Hints:
Blueprint: H1 2-23, E1 31-41, E2 46-56, E3 64-70, E4 75-82, E5 90-96, E6 99-105, E7 115-125, E8 128-130, E9 134-140, E10 153-158, E11 169-175, E12 184-190, E13 193-198, E14 207-215, H2 224-234, H3 239-256, H4 278-286, H5 291-303, E15 307-316, E16 319-328, H6 337-346, E17 355-357, H7 358-361, H8 369-382, H9 390-410, H10 416-433, H11 441-458, H12 471-485, H13 488-494, E18 506-508, H14 515-530, E19 552-553, E20 556-559
Parallel strand pairs: 1-10, 9-19, 15-18
Antiparallel strand pairs: 1-2, 2-7, 3-6, 3-20, 4-7, 5-6, 8-9, 9-14, 10-13, 11-14, 12-13, 15-16, 16-17
Helix pairs in contact: 1-9, 3-10, 4-5, 4-12, 5-12, 5-14, 6-8, 9-10, 12-13, 13-14
Amino acid sequence: MRKSLITILSTAVVLLNTTAVFASTIDEYWQIKEFHSDITINTNGTFQVTEKITADFTNEAHRGIGRVIPLNDTEIEFISSVDENGNQWYNTIRHYSGNIDIESLNQELEYRNDINTYLITYLVKYGYKFFDDHDELHWNVNGTEWPVTADQVSATVHIPESLTQDQIQLTCNTGFYGSTDQNCEYKFIDEHTIQFTATKPFNRYENLTIAVGMPAGTIQKPSPSELRNKKLQEYIPLLIPFFVTLIMFFLWFTKGRDEKAIKNTIIPHYTAPEGISPTETGIIFDEALDPQDITATIIEFAIKGYIQIHEVELKVLFIKTTQYILELKKPYETTKKFQKLILEGIFPLNEAGIKVNTESLKTTFHKHMPAIEKEVINDLISQNYFPHNPMTIKKVYTFIASIFFIITFQVIALGPIYIATFLLTALSIYGFGKNMPRRTMKGAETYFKLKGLYEYIKTAEKDRIKFQEDANIMFEKLMPYAIAFGLAEKWSKVFADIIKTPPSWFTSNANHFSIMNFSHSLNSFTNNFTQTTQEPSKSSGFGGGGFSGGGGGGGGGGGR
C-alpha cells in the first residue's frame, strides 16, 4: 500500500509540474492598438463593463485572443463578445485558478495575420469597496498580465444620474503591479461621464488602475447574510469529501471491521501459531503480501537446511558490490503449494547443488508473483482466515483513490476549494480502503496471537536472559517471522552479545563475524531479493493609497 501511495503521489507531482510549465507566461509579439473600457455603475451593487480591444496580429498570427480576469471575491457574468460589426466570435468561457477566461476566436479557428476588434461585455457583482465615508469603484482597466505592448489604454465611467460632479472623488495609477506612477489623466466629458486616459503607451505587463469615489450609501451594499451565504456557497464542494467519509466509515463499520475475536487480548507469544508460516504471518498481520514475506520463506528454508546463502563481495575497479548466491543443498519438500511456487521461481530444477545469483532473478522472479499471491491468498481464504481477498479489496480502493488524486491535479485551475475537495476525497477513500479488508473470527484471533509475537520480538531485549542457553535456536526459529514483521534488525540486536558464530546456512567472505554485521547483511539480502519481486522499471520520455494593479478586475490575456 505504501508503494501504491508513493506511485500515486509521484504521478501527481509530474502532473503538477506539467501544469506549472504550461501556466507560465511567455512574451508575445503581436500588440494591442487600443484597449478601452466602458463602465456603467449601477446602484444595485453591479456594474457593466464593455472592453474594446483592438489586436494587431500583423507580426504574429493568431486565431483570436483570450481575456483572463481575476475574480477575487467578485462574480462575473459573461454577456457577449462580438466584433465591431456585432458579429459573434467563437467564444469559450472557462473558470480556473480564481479567474474567468473569455476566449474569442474567429469562426474558422484559423491562424491569421490581421487586425481585429473584440467588444467583450460582462456584468460584475460584488466589485465595489465600501468605507465609512464613501463607496468606491476601484478597477484595473487592462490588467498587469498582458505579455504584449499597448498603444492606447483608456476607460469611460458612467456614474448614476443621482450624483453630481462635486460628489465624486477621482484618481488613477499606471505601470507594473505595485507602481504608484500616475501617467494618466481624468476629466468629466459630461455631467455623468468620466474619461480616464493613459498619457503614454504601455510596455508589457503595464496597467491602468482607476478609482471613483461616491458618497456612502450610493451603492446597495450586500447584507452580511448575503455575503455569508456567498462564502458558504463557495465551500459547498467540500461537502463531497464529508459525505464520502461518512459513506466510507459506514462501509468499514459494516463490511470492513474484523469479526469479533473470542480472545482479543494482546499477550506476548514466544512462538508463532501452529501451522502458520512466516509468509502467511505477514499476510494475516497486515493483510498484504509484501516482498519481505517472500524473503521470509527463503530464510525459513535456509534454516531448514534446503538453501545455503552465500554473500560475495565483488570489486570492479574501485567500486565494491555485494551479491548473493542461493545454493540448493537438497531437493525441497513442502506441503504448502505457494512455498513450492516460490522455490520453483528460484530453482526451476529441484536438484541439489544448483546455484542462482539473485541478480539474475531480477528479470525473472517477478513473473511468478501473481501465481504466488493468488495461491497463498486463496489458501488463507480456504482456511477461513479471510472471507475475501484482502489485497484485491485494497487494490480496488487504491484505484478509486488514485482517480481522485489525478482529478485533484486536473482541477488545480479551479482553485484551492476544488483541490481540497478532491484531495480530501482521495485521502478518505485511501485511508479507509487500506483498512477495509476483513478477517474472520479465526483470522482475528490469529492476528492477536501474531500481534503478541510481534510485541515479544519488538521488546525481547528485556527478556533475553531467559533463553540464552538456546540462543542460536531461538534466534533462527523466530528470524523468518521477524523479517515478515520488519523487525529483523531489532531481533538481531537482542543477540549482539550472545551469538558469536554465523548461522550454518549463511557464508560470507567477511573476515570478522558479528551478529550486527550479519543483520546488515540479512537486511541487504532482503532489499536485494525484494527487487526480484517487482517488475523492472522502464525508462520514460520527458514531456515539459493607490497603485497599479491594486483594484479589482484587470488580469490580462494573450493571443490564442
